[in-house]
Amino acid sequence: MAFQITGKIEVIGATTTITTKNGSVIYRREFVLDATRYNPDTGEPWDNHPKFELGGNNVNIIDQFQVGQRVTVDFSLNGAKYPDQTTGEIKYFTTIKAFRITAAEQQGQRPAQAPYQGQPAYPPQQQNPFPATAPTGQPFPPAVDQDGNPVENPDDLPF
What we know:
This protein is mostly beta strands. It is built from no helices and eight strands.
């Protein structure tokens, strides 16, 4: 399952190499997104700074972006469990793997970087899934009088 989030790039890490037990090399890179939102009632910020991981052939897709730039990141969550070597207790870890990054201004256009081979392409998200009017053409929310009661419409048919 894939997810999507938009925010400003806060940190771009360097590419690191990890040599596995069998001698193969894995490339890895991390970046942090500032995806802070604001409480619509109080205006207080809800801090959100997820750290994403890029791996393999995808480590360079962040190169065309700079810190402070607003981007949309397509990502997947991956988790694993392992036994702790000293206690034998089962532990868990989660990684957030980014596979596509686009400039936020390009959201209805072609992505800045195509996904890697085998990754499904997803249709662009609908701009406003909630219309300003109800399906009957009436404004939403419906008009109310000073007591909070709905204003009666002469054409009050349910269809």
